[in-house]
Amino acid sequence: MKFVSKFTLATAMAFGMAAVVPMAPASAQEEAAQFNAANISEAVRGPVAAAQTALQEEGTDLAAVRAQLETAAGAIQNNDDRFIVGQLMLQLGVKMQQAGQPADQVQTVQGRGLRLAVDSNLLPTAQRSTYYGFLGNMANQAENWPEAIEAYTEALRYNPNNADAAIQLALAQFRSNNNAAGYEAADRAFAAAQEAGTDIPANWVTVPLNAAIQARDVERISTYGPLLVSIEPTPAVWSQTLLGYASAARLDDQATLDVMRLLRAANALDQATYTEYANLALRRGYPGEAQSVIEEGQAAGVTFDGETTSEVQSRLSSDRSSLGEARASAASDANGMVALNTADAYVGYGEYGPAMELYRLAKEKGGIDTSPVDLRMAAALYAQNQTAQARQAFESVTGSRETLAKFWLAWLDQQGGAEAAAPAESATE
């Protein structure tokens, strides 16, 4: 089926620069022995001295100070000039912000100050990562991805554990269509945060996850999707993440049903997905499952169209009575397809005993993709509150449903389902 994604998770734009660029403490500046005020050139010394005096006064004319510093900047001849002009521009930016001047003007002055400070090569080493980080943030805001990448790379060179710079770098790399570098930077950010003992923010995870969904990179989705729902396990995040996965993976009807079943278990269905789930189950020949979804949805205030509910009712009796015959046919069928479909139908009616028997028969007969069988057996164990066995079964899923199994494991973790797995044979008892 054509599955329409509603994946709208916000990309992490915690990604704006802080309003005030922190100034280097005087002691740190003194430790940078390279700076020598005696080396300030004559053309710079005058306007710098005037600006410095004015910045220490109350009610100073900030426009005049800015003009003095622009004059000084135009006369720069050496690194000492760059350093002092840059520092004073940063101080001016703070004053401008405190005076309520427009943010774009403040950032222009601060950006100029930051650039002069780092270009002087006289900035204390301990502060360079922070300064480059602010430059990267400004470039990100301006959507100047090459400049942002350069700045964040420098920030990480001076502080390899700068997690903020790493996730910002990831965003810039993804915006530059360099996904491989973006994933690497995102993983570096997560590792740095964990090493520092801090939680990984959910909106950081959306950076590589959005990129993976857009690129239809299912392997990466299977990494970042379960991570996101483990950090922010709300129904909305579960829904958006799983629907994003379904859209990216271009799932067929049967795989989409498996997505809907997990959404249901995670209490993450809404009006649209309840309706889609019921119609899909009916279309695939599972009126019992469709009826249970409709009843559950109606109890939650969801409305279904009369045509759907009427068709479900008209098919229930004959479907239910045909299961015995289908079960017998499964035993003689050449492959496991009839057994699998009949097992799914039994699950729709909440009859897990015959369902588990038929799932095992489907695997024994073969000739089918066994990954959905393994996933559905694990889900059936979960539905019977056999959490430890379900965990072990989900962990063994490979192939086409492996990603969904990882999402199921994230859900089990959220329900406290981290008990030690039961012995292997108990999963098939």
CATH topology group of the domain at 26-208 = Serine Threonine Protein Phosphatase 5, Tetratricopeptide repeat
Strand content: under 5%
The CATH architecture of the domain at 26-208 can be given as Alpha Horseshoe
Using the CA coordinates, give the radius of gyration: 30 Å
How many helices does DSSP assign?
21
N-to-C span:
35 Å
Mean pLDDT: 89
Helix content: over 70%
Major sheet details = none
Q: Based on the structure, what is the oligomeric state of the protein chains? A: single chain
User: Based on CA inertia axes, which overall geometry fits?
Assistant: elongated
Word description of this protein:
The chain contains 21 helices and no strands. The chain has a domain at 26-208: Alpha Horseshoe (Serine Threonine Protein Phosphatase 5, Tetratricopeptide repeat). The protein has 429 residues and is an all-alpha fold. The protein starts with 25 loop residues before the first helix and ends in a 15-residue tail after the last helix. Helix 9 (179-195) packs antiparallel against helix 10 (202-214) and helix 11 packs parallel to helix 21 (402-414).
Task: Tell me briefly what this model is.
By secondary structure, the chain is mainly alpha-helical. It has helices spanning 26-31, 42-55, 62-74, 79-98, 103-119, 125-141, 145-158, 163-175, 179-195, 202-214, 218-231, 235-249, 253-265, 271-283, 287-299, 306-332, 337-348, 352-365, 370-383, 387-395, 402-414.
